[in-house]
Design brief:
Shape: globular
Strand order of the largest sheet: 10-11-12-7-13-14
Helix content: 25-40%
Structural class: alpha/beta
Number of strands: 14
Largest sheet: 6 strands, mixed
Order of helices and strands: HEEEEHEEEHEEHEHHHEHEEE
Length: 295
């Protein structure tokens, strides 16, 4: 029965809608659920049992799923000939000029270079926050150039964590709520996301601040909340863009000590942009950029 459905579905174009009961599912971007509803394909109704079809049909999905199960791959990030240009008026500015990098699983890597060298732009490509004009980024064996935008969003939500220099906390939510909001988006139960938030907040030294609003916290505390949020779902990679830029040296050291702790104790892969030379002492390796190229 399932083979018959698949043959019929292949006749449809990638973005054609299939009616399943009262829900419209778009091939290539949505999950296809087949319960006890009738499926109308063309003019033929096909009655199915309580079985689920695979939840994705996009190109590259099987590669992604397979890659996430291959934990023995030493290289967790590979950027291949990445080029990124921006238009400033009528002038095209090439910020990244064909950069190729590899980052090993469990590495703590710093991206450094002078202002305008392309540090944050490279981080955004590797972290799937932006798309290169050419080249590709492979994460955990998955070629992300094969992913649709919706699939990239899901990949980020479940596999990547981010820490920004401005903390990016929602001011109306408590510290705990800021931490577990992404877990709610993943569909975790209330018991699961509240427990995970409490555990990671304790790990960053804020176990007694769960109900506090960001406005009542210091800059260092807010950044620790953002670190907790980034790590709550156990990401395979943590990306940090100038995480200490708005902090004094004492709070910067506390943040970097946390990064080092999670890197050494949990094997957390971390990619961090920084302009401070002393920050590099915490890392395993430094990727240096100059004028959009590797030094």
């Amino acid at each position: 029965m399932e083979n018959k459905i698949e043959r019929e579905m292949e006749k449809e174009t990638e973005n054609k809608n299939i009616e399943i009961g009262t829900e419209n599912i778009e091939i290539g971007t949505e999950n296809i659920e087949i319960g006890t509803e009738n499926i109308e394909i063309g003019t033929e109704n096909i009655e199915t049992e309580n079985k689920n079809m695979p939840d994705k049909k996009e190109a590259g999905t099987e590669i992604v799923v397979k890659a996430l199960n291959e934990k023995n791959v030493d290289t967790i990030i590979e950027g291949i000939d990445i080029v990124r240009t921006f238009l400033m008026g009528e002038v095209e500015v090439r910020v990244l000029r064909g950069i190729s990098v590899k980052i090993r699983r469990g590495e703590f890597v710093a991206i450094m270079g002078p202002s305008g060298s392309g540090k944050t732009t490279l981080l955004n490509q590797l972290g799937l926050l932006d798309t290169p004009n050419s080249g590709k980024v492979i994460i955990n064996g998955a070629d992300t150039s094969l992913m649709f935008d919706r699939e990239k969003g899901r990949f980020r939500l479940h596999n990547l964590g981010y820490v920004f220099q401005d903390y990016a906390l929602l001011p109306e939510l408590t510290a705990s709520e800021n931490v577990y909001i992404s877990l709610m988006m993943q569909g975790k139960s209330k018991a699961e996301y509240e427990s995970a938030a409490a555990e990671i907040m304790e790990a960053v030294g804020l176990g007694d601040r769960l109900s506090q609003l960001p406005s009542k916290m210091s800059g260092g505390q807010q950044q620790r909340v953002s670190i907790a949020r980034a790590l709550a779902h156990n990401p395979i990679i943590l990306f940090a863009d100038e995480p200490c830029a708005n902090l004094d040296s004492k709070n910067s050291k506390e943040v970097l000590d946390l990064f080092k702790k999670f890197n050494k104790e949990l094997g957390q892969t971390i990619v961090m942009v920084t302009h401070e030379d002393w920050h590099a002492e915490y890392t395993d390796r430094v990727i240096r950029l100059k004028d959009g190229m590797l030094e």
